[in-house]
Amino acid sequence: MRLGYDEKTEAFRDQFVAWLEANLPDPLLTAERPTSSAGVPEWARQFQRQMFDDGWLSPAYPSELGGRNADLFEQMVYLEELGRRHVTRSFNPQGLGIVSASIVSFGNEEQIERWAVPIMRAEKTAALGMSEPGAGSDLAALATRAVLDGDHFVVNGQKVWTSGAHDADVLLVFVRTDPEAPKHKGISALIVETDTPGLDRRPFPDLGGPDHVDFNEVFFDDVLVPSTNLVGDLNDGWRICNGALAHERAMLWVMWSQSLDNMLDDALAELNGTSHADDDVVLDRLGRSIMDSHAIRLLGHRQLAKQQRGLVPAELSILKLMGSEAQQDLAALILETLGAAALDQAVDSTLRFPYENDRGAVSWSDRYLFTFAGTISGGTSEIQRNIVAERVLGLPRG
Amino acid sequence: MDFELTDDQLELQRIARDVLDREAPASLARDIAEGSGSADELWATLTSLDWPALCLPEPVGGLGHGWVELAVLLEEMGRHVAPGPFAATAAQFVPAVRHAGTLDQQERFLAPVAAAGATGTLAVDEGAGTWDLDQIRASATRDGDSFVLSGIKCFVVDGASAEEIAVVVRVDGGLRVVVVPGEAVAARELNPIDATTRHATIDLEGVRVGHDRLLVGSDSDDVVVRAVQEATVGVAASTLGACQRILDLNLDHARERQQFGVPIGSFQAVKHKLVDMYCLVERTRALVYFAALVFDSDDGRRAIATSMAKAGAGECQQRCVQDGLQLFGGIGYTWEHELQLFLRRAKVGELHFGSSSSHRRIIARCAMSAP
Fold first, then answer.
1. pTM for the whole thing?
2. Distance CA A91, CA A93 (A)
3. Would you tell me which CATH number, out of the four given (3.30.420.40, 2.60.40.730, 3.30.870.10, 2.40.110.10), belongs to the domain B122-213?
4. CB-based contact (8 Å) between A276 and chain B?
5. Residue of chain B minimizing CA distance to A321
6. Which residue among A296, A348, A385, B203 has the highest number of C-beta atoms inside a 10 angstrom radius?
């Protein structure tokens, strides 16, 4: 156990910091904000492309895929430096983190060349078609049907909550290809270009307001998808669904940790110097949030150290649960503490953090509401608890 | 950072667990609670295995291990609800002498610990139950070749049995530590909820000790602060171990106990409580070992790290004791079941060295004043 990193890792950090300082875009050019999680402004596309070309977009990858074969500790200091500067490396997070990553892990050379690299270079953006009206927490019950007919799949059905689909060039869609098989064993993953005839995207606003449009319903009406767009093996899609994040899994927790830290920084700035800073009740609850932020970071580091030693860490499975709930608790505390003042629009954070994937000013009440994206999406907190109970604690399935 | 135990530390953990599995079964704690047992034999065994010397510096005959190793041992002691003087000696008395004493004084008071398992403890609180150093009123006054003490000390772990007691007093207004022979003070042992964590009120009024028993390695209050911080994390580590055992017992119970034809662990209402306990145990472990690392690294975050470890352990025991007892149902509500021994150890950890809420306020103040 040690608090610091070794020299090799620190040298890697220095190298990245030097690159960042030379290549961060002029803040004056960042006024254009993203329109959705696949609606990426041109300056952010250019920056992402620069990161890829210089081997700093996905450091764990080899150079031809935008990386430099970094080990886990090097990836960690890389993310620390991005977080410290509030730099979002891709404004199309599902595209980079899930769609291109899945194609790299499970697709073939041609698919990597045709889709993964353009997504990583922000020439294309991508969205992820998983949930359906009848398949949320029970994702494996998905019913969108794909029937192989010659050299095409014919796709019919509906997806929902498909973030950024209306701005995306391609979708990674999970479909049912064998309705006779047990539900986990009849699923496949297809890449679908969004300009394919029969595909209809209907964006709808989320809790953030009528102009906060990211979600989509996506309808498939006899959509013809070339069979070469199948990622991985036929009926092996559930493995992709679970493994989509495999190469990023060691690092995904950092997002939870950093967004909690950011919220905590804002909360401390909000309270410091006010009478709330002497209120024992506020301090008591704030203390708990500070412990959460430290504990999540420390647990993340512990699983990292275990993975670096070739062990399979159990900690990973609780970080999303803990991180999303800790943010909700903290936002609720600030909301309650500030009272009516929390209802006003806060200062536009994009002015302070021009490289962060934010869309504009939000109040603390908005921030509280947005924390539910964390406790609902990507597996609700209740589903996370079931997963931890069964996979980590060895409790029987209900 | 590298936040996982090294291979050597994992080996130490394995050995400690094996020794305590063998030498400190739960029946020992029960025998002590029922008045028929003694911790003496366990202490003799641990001494023969060099436990008291393990984390002492080499110049006084120690093996030179650090706080991470000490936390490993304390966590295992808690996990086994092991009785005896180890915790108070290693995590309370030793830090006080190490930080406040001169090299000669360290040799004088710590060499017997390393060589023969001499025992000690630390006396801080004076009845408020807050361990707040600002409230220290006990004093030592110079009189010729000796110091005369006044005041009382409360909740002193092993206060009626330790051979030496490091007592925090005021000398000319500053915080100092004076090492008082246990036999020189009148100690009244309290009846604690955890029979394996004995504590006492000790009366210092008029007690006279040689002037060389005042630790004079430093004239800064900070050495006293530091000793109390380390003692606080020691309590957190032991509490963590007790909570881990409560969780383990509950997991076994939930897998085995059948109702309505299925194991109760298949019910979500049970699962979710167990997951919450698990999350809090892991959160606490992270915070306890962070504090240990901070102590070992001479890092500036001692105050916040200490309070996070202690408040973490406190929040963890609250959940583990409450849900751990609830999920066991009727069998957990008996004297006969071993669960109660661990519940008591976990609970006593909340009450010693400051409550969770007092430590959370310290955490928030530290964070507010940080740049």
1. 0.95
2. 6
3. 2.40.110.10
4. no
5. B279
6. A296
